[in-house]
Every structure is written in C-alpha cells, then in structure tokens.
Specification:
3 copies of one chain form a homotrimer.
Chain A lengths: L1 E10 L2 E4 L1 H7 L7 E7 L4 E7 L3 H14 L20 H10 L3 E7 L2 E2 L5 E7 L4 E10 L1
Antiparallel strand pairs in A: 1-8, 2-7, 3-5, 3-8, 4-7, 5-6
Chain lengths: 138, 138, 138
Amino acid sequence: MLQTELIISTHGPGLYEITSDVRNWLNSVECDGLLTLFVRHTSCSLVIQENADPEVRTDMRAFFDRLVPPSDHPSMAYLRHTYEGPDDMPAHIKAALLPVSLTIPVTSGQLALGMWQGIYLFEHRTAAHTRRVAAHFA
Amino acid sequence: MLQTELIISTHGPGLYEITSDVRNWLNSVECDGLLTLFVRHTSCSLVIQENADPEVRTDMRAFFDRLVPPSDHPSMAYLRHTYEGPDDMPAHIKAALLPVSLTIPVTSGQLALGMWQGIYLFEHRTAAHTRRVAAHFA
Amino acid sequence: MLQTELIISTHGPGLYEITSDVRNWLNSVECDGLLTLFVRHTSCSLVIQENADPEVRTDMRAFFDRLVPPSDHPSMAYLRHTYEGPDDMPAHIKAALLPVSLTIPVTSGQLALGMWQGIYLFEHRTAAHTRRVAAHFA
C-alpha cells in the first residue's frame, strides 16, 4: 500500500493535466492494484478527458461556464452564497457535478487508461490556488 | 477489511450530513486504507460538499431543481416515466448526474477530507425514505 | 485480486446493461471485497440506474441530449472541437458529467446493488463502437 499527496498549483479556471505526476509517483510499482485519487477541496474536480486536441479542454470549460454561470449573472439571482465572489458558489456546484475522486485499475504497474485518456485537475476558481490530491495505491 | 450498512432516514429533498456516521464507524481503525461508500438506490446521491455555510446546501438544491425540474413542468413534457409522481424521473436523472459512490483514502485512521469537506446524502425524492449506504474499508 | 477487461459492442447512443457480464465474471467469488469498473474511453460512461421500467433509460437519454445538444445546434455554436461530427464534443462533455468509474462493495460474493439497481454502459456516440471496461476485484 502506497499513499501520498500530490500538490498542484492552479492559476485560474481550466483543466490541468496531472497524468505524468501520477505516473511518476507510481514509477516503482510493477504489480497489479488499484489507484485512487481524491481531491481535498469543494471548488475543483478531477476528470478523465481526451488528451489529444486542446480544444476539447477549451470547449469543456466553455460548456460548464454556460451550464453554471457566475452568480452575478441574471439567471443565477437565486443564489445566496455569494460573499466570496461570483465564482464561489458556481465552483461548488461544478464540484458536485464533476468527480471528486477517480479509481483506476493498474496492471503490472500500468494505469488502465485508454489511449486518449488523460487525468486532469479541473480548477473552477478564478484566483490562484494550491490544490491537494490524496493518492492511494493498493 | 470492514463492511457495514449505514441507514439514513430522510424527510424530503436536500443534503443530509453523514460525516459523523462514517467517522463513528471507522472509530476503531488506526491504519491506512481506503473507504468506499455506495448508495443502494437510484433516486438519491452521495456528495462531498462544503460543511461551513448552510446556504451552500440550499443553493445546491436550488440549482439542481432548476437543472432538472419536476416532470409536470412544461419544459419536461417529453418525460414518460411519470407514474410515481413528478419528482420520480427527475430523481433518477439527478442520481445519474451526481455520485452513487465515493472513495476516500484513510491515513492512520483519519479520512483524507479537506478542512471544508463533509460527506452528504443528497435526497432527491419528496416523500420520507429510509436510505441504505454500503460502506467498505480495506 | 482479479482483473479482466469486459468488451461491450454498442450500436448508437443509449444505455446497455452489463450487470450480468459483471456477475458472470465474479461468479467464482465467495468472499468480501470491492469491485471497480473503469471505462477506457472519453465518449461513453458507466452509470447505475433503475433496471425495471425501460422508459427510465429512454428518458435519461432524452434529458442528456437536451442538456448537451449536438454541436450543429444553434445553442452550441461556441464549440470548436467539431471535426469528428456533431456528436463528438457533446460525447466528451457527457463523459465528464457522468461516471468514468464505479466502485461497488461485494459481500460474500454478492454485489451490494439495491433491488432496482443495474449497471449500464451509457454510449454517447452515434456510430457503432467496441468499448473496453477494465474490471478489478480485491
């Protein structure tokens, strides 16, 4: 059993690839097992997404910004938790809609990711943040 | 390896915190491991959310009620599975959108939850229900 | 510890039940443990849904097709990743919104599924596909 905490610095909304951080940590593993990642925050997410065309990540962010607009947008006037800024409550909502944890089988030390799958931290807040991801392998 | 079933009584839609139920069950654990929670229903969810301001939970419910209105709302006239009431099919949709299972690393018996993270059962049905959550630690 | 890869052939969007594929694979298991399923693609999902009324699955697909319309729909004109067809980027978005992995406790060889829960692969692409699901039991 291995555990660590990955630290990811973010500077605004969007998808930050962490696949190589995860692979580096699992570098010495040669056996079968299960990887779990768990993000220790309620305003960012962990997602598996296409790692080829960067426009997929641009479109992804654009979709979620339209699905959950900032709280100063007229359509969101019903929101009450607004004192940390217009990106605060939408970030919590996106963090409910998107995964807080990922579990990925590992075979002979290799993640079972498909050819086009990468692991991303999806930042929902505007300000820079230091994000902590608990990682577990067993 | 430990397994149990947590029983949660709900009385209408909203978020019910179960963090202390989970911690009480893990009370005797002092080692590292992985906690898995799995809700045995298709009309409620498990979410990690902010445990500080209660308005976050109010806003969360308000957002999802607007994203997936009751089936007697004009915008939902295309729904067919309506015989259990207007909150039935929307509950299934919310149960697809939000997590059915959560996996959380445990270090020296402590859940890797961030400072502001709580574990909630998110009830989507209007009537009172008894909800069963399968819990597994290994 | 057991690992395998389940192969599922799909022929257009919708929910394909794989509960019996999973149960058949776990057939020889009599102990407690944890099942993890992980889909190795970014344009389909794994969901737990009601296994009784087929209209639940019809309604589910109808909802997500309205939430994330094809990229040639006027409301989606902002999307850029469109060269693989109008169902391409919406499939990636649905794959972010819906689970890529599921973890289900197993007790004495029995999945902790509730009475009305089935395991489904949710295909988001129009063309026929061969989908691979990594399965892990420990």
